[in-house]
Amino acid sequence: MALCLAVIVVIRAWSWQSIETQEVVDIPAFSFDLNFATPEELDLIPGVGEKMAADIIALREEMGGFKAVEDLQRIRGIKSAKLSAISPYVFVETR
Question: CA distances (Å), 57 to each of 22, 23, 33, 47, 73, in order?
Answer without folding.
Answer: 39, 35, 12, 16, 13
